[in-house]
Amino acid sequence: MFDELDTIDARTDAIAEEAATLIANGTPREEAINTAINHEDERNDAIDAQRYIPDENGHPVSFDDSTLDYPAAGNASRKQILAIKEDIKDEVSSRIS
After folding, report:
1. DSSP state of 68
2. What residue segments make up the domains of the chain, in order of their start?
3. pLDDT tens for residues 28-56?
4. Is the pTM of this model over 0.85?
5. 3 state SS for 18-66
6. Contacts of 42 (CB under 8 A, 6+ apart)
């Protein structure tokens, strides 16, 4: 069963992943975490907005997140990004709770 804790864990994971990617590519830690939190909020707002906008036939519009900005991995390795992600996960979790 999917509950609120699962949602928080998924959100924390997504934010930590983006922040870690930014940090691995040279963005200062604080700025990277704030940027990732803001991007997640923007994605959620866009999803919520589109849930309630019907198409010409009155059906809900499906959300296409390909138009949103995601950070590129740049020169960072996946291993480096994952190590940073684990390092900042608790901080991200405490900031969004």
Report:
1. S
2. 4-96
3. 999 999 999 999 888 888 777 666 666 77
4. no
5. HHHHHHHCCCCHHHHHHHHHHHHHHHHHHHHHHHCCECCCCCECCCCHH
6. 68
